Structures are given as C-alpha cells and as structure tokens.
Amino acid sequence: EVCTKTAINSCSDCIKSGAYCGWCKQLNFTKPGEQEAARCDTQAALKERGCMEEDIISPKNVFFNVKNSTLSKNTDTTDDPIQLQPQEVYLKLRPGLSKTFRINFQRIEGYPVDLYYLMDLSYSMEDDLRSIKSLGNQLFEALQGITKKGRIGFGSFVDKTVLPFTNTNPEKLKKPCAEKEQFCQPAFGYRHVLSMTADKATFQKEVNKQNISGNLDSPEGTLDAIMQAAVCGDRIGWRNSSTRIIVLTTDDGFHMAGDGKLAGILEPNDEKCYLENKIYSKSSEMDYPSVGQVATQLENNNIQPIFAVTKNMEGVYRKLSEMIPKSEVGVLSEDSRNVVELIKAAYNRLSSKVTVTHDSLPDNVKVTYTPKCPNGGGSGGDTGVCDNVGVGMMVSFDVTVTAKECLDRNISFTIGPLGIKDKLKVSVSTRCECECDDPQTDAHPYCNRQGKVNCGMCSCKDTFVGQKCECSIKGKDVSSLKAACQKDNGTECEGRGDCVCGVCQCHAIPGGLAYYGTHCECENESCEKYKNQLCGGNGKCICKNCVCDPEYEGPACQCKKSDEQCRSDQSVCNGRGTCQCNQCKCIEGYQRPFCKFCPHTFKKCIECLGFQTGPFSKNCSEACKSIHKFEMVDTLPPGKPCDVRDVENCRVFFTTFQLVGEDNYTTNKVCMFIHVHHTECPELPNIYGIIGGSIAGVALIGLLILLLIKGIIYMNDLKEFRRFENEKKKAKWTDVTNPLFQNATTTVANPTFTGE
C-alpha cells in the first residue's frame, strides 16, 4: 500500500490523492515548522509516527444490496420470472479502491420465446418460400419443444423501391418478377406481415398468402428490415419477459449505410420506427442503417438474430455475426427445407452461452468480470462468458467496479446477460470528502480562539492567519506579508518553510537539523565533499559554504596552505598569479606552472616595436614602456620559442626573459618576415582559379546529368521497342476479304468464244 501524495492542503486533498492515503486529525500531530501535508500518509506510517487509530481518516468502500429477489425456478408461478440476482445495488467508492461483488444467473425451464421469421422475398428465394409454406407446422412444433410459451411472427423484405435498386417503371413496380411468373407482389422495402401469435393456423394462413417480389441488384435491404423489426416493438409484439429471436433467411448480401447515396438518399438512418399500414414508410427517404446501429438496437432491445443463409453467403454473414453480439449463423439447403433443424441448433448454441456485459460508462469508471462457470473455464475481462450452460444451471460472475477519480455526480448503469431482459442496476458515487466529527465551536483553544478545528487543522477567522491562527492581519496587506517571505520575488521561504506574519518559520530536516536564514535559504548539509566528507573534514559547512580550519583552504578545505610548489626563483608565481592549493593560478596570458612563459598580452607591442604596424604604431613607446629591452636577431637563443600572428597573418617567433612581476620583462625576437617570409606567411588564394574551377565543375556536373537522363530515356525506348517487336512476332493475322471491296479490273467472257 503506497500513498502517492500530490499537492495536499486539506484532508479532502489527501483522500483524493491515493486509494491508500489516510489523514491524521489528531491535534498537535505536526511538529514545529512541519507543514500540515505531513498529516497525509499510509495508515501504517501515520501509526508509526504516533497518530492514534481512531484519529486516522481513511474512507472505505460502501456496498448496499438495494434489491435482491430470489431466483425463479420455472415459469409456472409467475409471468415475470427472475433469472438474475441481485437486481439493484448501490456503491459508494473510494477513488482508486476497487469493490467486487457477485451476481448469479440461472436459466429457467420453459422461459417464453418470441420468434420473428424475417424472410427475403426477392425472386431468387421462390423455392425457399414454397418450403416455408409447407414447414409451418414443423416450425411451430419445434418452438413448442423449446417452450410451452412460444409465439411466432412473420415479416418480409426486398429492397428500396428507387433506382438503381429497383426498376421504377410503373409496370415493373407492380410486377417486378419475370413475365412467366403468375404470382408476384409489387416491389416493397420491408413489410411486417404478422405480429407475435401462438395460433399456428393464423401463422400458416398469413405465410400462405405471401408471394415473391423482385429488385435489380444483388444486395437486399436486409439491415432496413432488421432495424424496423428491432425498434417497432409494440407493432411486432415483443413481450417484456421473453427470449427474443429474429430468424433471417436470405440468399444474398445486404446494403449498408452510404449505399443510399446511389439513389440520392442523403438523410441518415435515425433508428426510429416508421411502420404505416405495416409498410416501412421511410424506405425511399432514409439511408440504410450501419452495422453498428443495427448491433446497438439489437442489444438494447435484447434481440438475438439467427442468420439462416445459403452456402455462398455464409462467409459474409459470419463476418456480420462477429460485429453483432449474441448472434448465430446457419447454412440453408438449396430449398430451405432444413430451416427448422437450423433454428433449433442455433437456439441451443445461443441459449447455452451466457455473456454478461454492461452499457456505456464514463471514462473514469471501470468494470471487469471474473466468471465462475459450473463446468469451469469461461473468459473474463470487459465481458464475462460461460459456455455450455444448461437449463436450471446457475452461473456466477464476480464484478469488480473501480472509480479512477472523484465523480461530479452519481451515475447509474446496468449489467446483465446479452439477449435477456433481466438487468442489474448499479448506482455509483464516490467518497471524496472527510467526515471528521469536529467540535462545533468557532473559538477553539488550539486555534488561539481565533478559528475552528477542521480535521485537525485550524480554519481561521478572516483577520487571522497562521497554522494556529496566531497572526493578526488587521490593517495589513496579506500580499505584502507574503512578499516579505520571498527572496528576489521567488518561492515563498524558498519552499522550505511557512510564512507566518511576514516571517519565515523554517522546516526541520530529517536527522534533527533545520533550515535557517531570513528566507530559509541556508542549511549545513550541501557543502562540497572531499573523500566523502563535508569540507574534507577540515572545516565546517555554514550556509552551503565551507569555512576551513586555519591551516587548510580550497572549496572543500581539501588543500593544506603552502606555496612550496608555486615558488620559482624565490618568488611566488613570478608575481603574475596567486598560489591556491599549492598551485599557481596565473593572470590571463601567462602559463602554468609558474606563470612564466609566453605572455601573449604584448602581441601589439611586438608588432609596433618590430615592424611599426598594429594598433600601437602611433604611440608605441608609451603603450609598451614596460618592455625594458627589445632586439631583432637572426637566430633565437636556445629553448622553445613563443609565437603570435601579426596583422598579415604571418607567424612571429620570439623569446622573453621575464623579470619578477606583471608586464616586466625583456624580449628577444626574430621576425620570419625577414628571413623566411614566403614559407611562413600564408599564400593568397588564386581567385581566378577558384572561379574557373567552379564554372568548369558546374558545367561538368550538368553535362553528366544530361548524359544520364539521355541514357535512361534511350534504355527505356529500347526496352519498349523490343517488347513491341516480340508482340509483333506473336501476332497472328487472319486474311479476310472485305465484302465492300471491288477490284478495279473487270473481266468479261465472250459468250460466242469456243476456245478454238
């Protein structure tokens, strides 16, 4: 258990900052100079620091079982059986602290079933319609085998009666089938034929009245039909307490949202019921629904679809089934004679699989499921699933609800098995405020009688401030008091203390020490270390700086005071620096170890004395009076010479003999300008060569690019020509005489000519 504290100014802030944070309301719990935020920590840490258990505020989750009716065993004793337990719970959650509770579901024997047979009546389904007309009795018997309280309804669909989906010629609208077809009904989108009924004869009678129709393209208005069957519950006759099933039979695909634009239909589907005289009245005015819209309405209305499709459409509808929870796909025979067995098998698969989920949640609430299946197995997470659940078997799911942060208002959502009307209502609120049971007085002694206690802290009157309301600000500006505690308009008391009446009260440091100073800017633990000791053990750390013992020096008191290694010719650093830690720290221009060699600072003097050039050329004697002796020589004395560059960028070599002190020396110089000028002075660049070379380079690169492009074009043309030649060789031309062609030469035979 960890308490990750953020900005803590009150008990409420502490409770919100972490699921395991507690607040100590005990008076005098904080030490002098300690902030009130120290009251916030884990319960174990607060107890260790001396807070009594009864003074620790750490709200727990609260669970109320509002409604928990007993599960029904069958449907004999009630028309509204209960399959899910409990029915309503209330949770009051600590943010970040999960609460787990269990729900139970039991399949009831003989639970009512409403089955809506939705059939594609396009021309290609002619033989399937004949089969369903002959299978009405078997379909009812199969339903009675599932439950004695079964009902069945019937609906049909084709497609929107607009181009390019349906031929809009008036005669074709009346009879969209082939001319030889005698029994053909006019084109339509979706028609609700029969509401739910338990009368077998009525169902058979209405189905026998049905005739096929037709359209132009292959996909049908399937999603239009499913949407209307789902949202027109009162027209279809769905019961509140029943398993709702749509059996869809078709041999073709389906149109989706956006396809309506082909017919100029731009209005999106609004998921509402538009049945007038049992016909979908908005079929030609409203676009097809999307798969997501259909899936949502099926789930909201607890409807489970069974797609009975031909073999060529199985793959399409299996993909659709993956996007619609609690749905099944079966393959029809050529004439749909296996539809009864298909429905029974699909129903058994649907009813034996229990999938528990919830409706939409806010982003800061999370719900997960852990299944407790009677046969083991199952899967959990955002949904809970148990397979092979038989009639009368009870399955359980552990539901874990977590509020990630405080909720602005109470929320409610439902949990339940898909396709079942039984739902658990879950109401959730959060515990983000402290209940401290404080004394009801505005003049508490702990607050110097100038305020009241709020969860161990003082809430002062308007004219008083401070941890215990000890500071009166009557006639004073609060902002000016705070400004007095800020150094250079920075953080109040450097973040290391509390500003009380314009004076910083510094906090303690772990280990018994404390910050100090006007703005708590000082402490004696941050000085430099040497050999892992503050101030090398040779001094004291005072306000972040080492004060060394008399015989030591250095930022960490790491050096003994001595100048033995700084002396040269009986002088310390030749008078051109200071000895620190037994090493010379030279003035700029002089080099260690003794600040003796190569003072480049008199470069300008070398130029003016030796060559009468440079910035000192006009007042050379005055500017360079510290140089006692200056000679131009052909050869330098032995030793490593120094060098500088003059205004012409030539190197000037020289040696010096320094006297003790700064700028006090004699100089021996040799100017290579006299003897080796051409080798030491850099040659000027050949401008004409550079310009000419650049032009030649650009021209050469351009020529190469042109040649490359020409080569690529040539190779491409050659490749095309060879391909043309190969194709010409493969061509086989047929000699055919043009019937319109007449030869320019006419031959006429003499009828009297005998050939002799």
SSE blueprint and pairings:
Layout: H1 11-17, E1 22-24, E2 40-41, H2 43-48, E3 56-57, E4 62-67, E5 84-85, E6 88-93, E7 99-106, E8 113-120, H3 126-134, H4 136-146, E9 150-157, H5 170-174, E10 190-197, H6 200-208, H7 222-231, H8 233-236, E11 243-250, E12 275-276, E13 279-280, H9 291-300, E14 303-309, H10 314-323, E15 328-331, H11 339-352, E16 354-358, E17 365-372, E18 384-386, E19 394-403, E20 411-417, E21 424-430, E22 451-454, E23 457-460, E24 464-465, E25 471-472, H12 478-483, E26 497-500, E27 503-506, E28 529-530, E29 533-534, E30 539-542, E31 545-548, E32 552-553, E33 559-560, E34 567-568, E35 571-572, E36 577-580, E37 583-586, H13 603-611, H14 620-623, E38 627-632, E39 642-645, E40 651-658, E41 665-670, H15 672-675, H16 677-680, H17 687-730
Helix pairs in contact: 4-11, 7-9
Subcellular location: Cell membrane
Domain PSI: 2-52
Domain Integrin beta subunit cytoplasmic: 710-756
How would you describe this structure to a colleague?
By secondary structure, the chain is of the alpha+beta class. The protein is 22% helix and 25% strand. The strands form 14 sheets. Strands 4-6-21-20-16-18 form a 6-stranded mixed beta sheet. It has a 6-stranded mixed beta sheet with strand order 10-9-8-11-14-15, with helices on both faces. The model is unreliable at 666-679 (pLDDT under 50). It is a single-pass type I membrane protein. It is found in: Cell membrane. Disulfide bonds join 11-21, 14-51, 24-40, 177-184, 232-273, 373-386, 432-436, 455-493, 460-469, 471-485, 499-504, 501-535, 506-520, 522-527, 541-546, 543-573, 548-557, 559-566, 579-584, 581-620, 586-595, 605-681. Belongs to the integrin beta chain family. Residues 10-434 form the Integrin beta subunit VWA domain.
